[in-house]
Amino acid sequence: MSEAEAEADREQQESLARVERGGLPLAAERRLRALAAGGGSFTSDLSVADFALCHQLGLRPLSQVMGSSIYQVGYQATPWPSSFGGGLMFELQTLSEAWNEVRGRALHRLAEEAAHVEADSVVGVELRTGAHDFAEHAIEYVVVGTAVRHTKARRARGPVITELSVADYAKLAQAGIEPLGIVAWSSVFFVSASYATQMLGGGLGFSQNQELPEFTQGIYSARETVVQRMTAQAAQLDAAGVIGTRINHAIQRISLGGGRYQQGGLMVTFHAIGTAIAHATDAGAFSPKATIDVSS
Questions:
Q1: CB 15 within 8 A of CB 26
Q2: Rounded CA gap, 276 and 183, in Å?
Q3: Contacts of 262 (CB under 8 A, 6+ apart)
Q4: Helix H or strand E encompassing 84
Q5: 8 A C-beta contact, residue 94 and residue 186
Q6: Among 137, 130, 33, which residue's Cα sits nearest to residue 24?
Q7: Pseudo-torsion of CA 103, 104, 110, 115, nearest 10°?
Q8: Angstrom distance (rounded) from CA 178 to CA 174
Q9: Are the C-beta atoms of 145 and 125 separated by less than 8 Å?
């Protein structure tokens, strides 16, 4: 093995170790540090309108930044004793933890890339999730945005990541409202119908309109878990509230266990993500400029 090949192998091993610790590969960090030190042309995913709006706000685009993670979902134990009225409802902790961990790692890497270019904020963040055939039972989370620096006054703290569009970010700035960061949580519940509910319709073959109470309760339980965790995150940031919250939920039929212990039901997945905000004390209300049409 040549010296160059040995160096390339050492760098690859170091990059893998960094990724395992939740950090960035060496090549990405080196590129971003060089960009911060030497300036040069920036890259971004900003539209023409977004770029012009950043210019009006005094935001200088520095670089497109990304955070990504592909996460393997582990074994989910089945706590059958947790039941009510013959039905079952419990959180699939392994799945919930996997979604929260994969998102946390992606957002951490996004913030780390932004810090390497000495950014104040990341705007225009887009989120993508998915699964892949090449990694069974794995989930992916990707966040992409544009790192910007405030030309008028630098932030004392690290870069602020928001889930807002550039236009919404501008509206907050004009209103004197400060974004504090992203708050988010995911919760996955398993729910099966009670014997009484099944018998009402002869095994869910219902002959009349009626609510499925266990399934409704399952959605509420997942939602309440998510809201409680997001509220706690906002409190840690001393936020006045959370805005722009996006909610996504999915329901699919699954079976847990095996043999005579196999139980069919629904898996309820509930995701929510938003931006925590505070009222800035040093910013006044935005005053619109008067415009007079003299063309007529």
A1: yes
A2: 6
A3: 255, 256
A4: strand 83-84
A5: no
A6: 33
A7: 170
A8: 10
A9: yes
Q: Which two tokens stand for residue 191?
A: 């729910």
User: Residue 62: phi, psi to the nearest 5?
Assistant: -110, -45
* 19 burial via Cβ count (<10 Å: 0-12, 13-18, 19+): middle
Tokens of 261: 């212990």
Residue 174 phi, psi (nearest 5): -70, -30
Amino acid identity, position 145: G
| Dihedral-angle region of residue 137 (phi above 0 means left; psi in -120 to 50 means alpha; beta otherwise) | left
CA atoms within 13 A on the CB side of 46: 25
Q: Say how far apart CA 79 and CA 190 lie, in whole Å.
A: 11
At residue 102, does pLDDT exceed 80? yes
3-state secondary structure of 246: strand
Q: Which two tokens stand for residue 208?
A: 């009349």
Which range among 14-23, 54-63, 147-156 has the greatest average pLDDT?
54-63
Q: Give the integer Cα–Cα distance in Å for 65 and 160.
A: 13
DSSP H stretches of helix in 175-212:
195-200
Q: Give the tokens for residue 212.
A: 């499925």
Is 80 a residue whose pLDDT tops 70?
A: no
pTM higher than 0.85, yes or no? no
List all residues 6 or more positions away from 291 whose beta carbon is below 8 Å from its beta carbon.
Answer: none
Over the range 170-188, which residues count as b (16 or more CB within 10 Å of their CB) and which as e?
bebbeeebbbbbbbbbbbb
Residue 189 CA to residue 250 CA, distance in Å, equals 11
Strands 241-256 and 121-132: unpaired
Residue 182 is given by DSSP the state E
